[in-house]
Amino acid sequence: MGENKKKIRIMIADDVPLLLEDMTELIDRQDDMEVVGTAGSGKRIVELAKEIEFDIILMDIEMESLNSGILAAEQLREELGEPNIIFLTVHDTNEMILTAMGAGAVDYLVKGCGEEEILNHIRSAYNGNPIMERKVHDVVMREYVRLQKSEKSLLFFINNISGLTAAERELIKMLLEGKKVKEIAKERCVEIVTIKTQIKGLLRKFGCSRTKEVTKIINDLNLTHLFM
């Protein structure tokens, strides 16, 4: 008899018990996969990910809040490096691709798709060839044409978003809300000079000279949902 093949260790986060149960049963029926943990919230999956060894997390975007999956993915990226996260979503749009990229996910699955498609996405991501890469390529190429490969191209901007710290994301959120430096400093209980220093860092990352340029690009590219 041959040696037992290593199984793909999967954790699932979804706040709909029936969907969580169905996905668990599907994965556990596979010879090359096993579910090692389940959670019903973004907060809980973050806790589990720090306790259990896993290869991939399947994570619903909308759980205890509309963007809890995104926030959980960002936290996991900061604490665990680059975990393999596949988002579960009801949308198959360019905006979904951008959301997944911005949050550091490797792929996404549309809820309700067929079982073989789900398994194909999981195996492809595990083997380092996520299916989203092909869609991302198409989206980025169209964006290059639209923006004539300018420095403010979608790829340039998304790459910078993915490198932001949690503090920088919070700062951008406040700027998008129209808050001034004094207001931000007061809310965050820090000196104004501290906020100005953080803003200078943001401007360097995005190649802009004013915060209004950063917020305008985010609004023009419809990426405000990444910070709310």
Highlighted features:
alpha/beta, Rossmann fold, Arc Repressor Mutant, subunit A, 2 domains, 5 strands
Topology:
Elements: E1 8-13, H1 17-28, E2 33-39, H2 42-49, E3 56-60, H3 68-80, E4 85-89, H4 94-103, E5 107-110, H5 115-126, H6 132-147, H7 154-162, H8 166-176, H9 181-188, H10 192-206, H11 211-220
Parallel strand pairs: 1-2, 1-3, 3-4, 4-5
Describe this structure in words.
The protein has about 230 residues and is an alpha/beta fold. The chain has two domains: about 10-130, Rossmann fold (3-Layer(aba) Sandwich), CATH 3.40.50.2300; about 165-228, Arc Repressor Mutant, subunit A (Orthogonal Bundle), CATH 1.10.10. It is about 55% helix and about 10% strand. The protein contains eleven helices and five strands. It has a five-stranded parallel β-sheet, sandwiched between helices. Helix 1 (about 15-30) links the parallel strand 1 and strand 2. Helix 2 (about 40-50) runs parallel beside helix 3 (about 70-80) and helix 4 (about 95-105) runs parallel beside helix 7 (about 155-160). The chain starts with 7 loop residues before the first strand and ends in an 8-residue tail after the last helix.
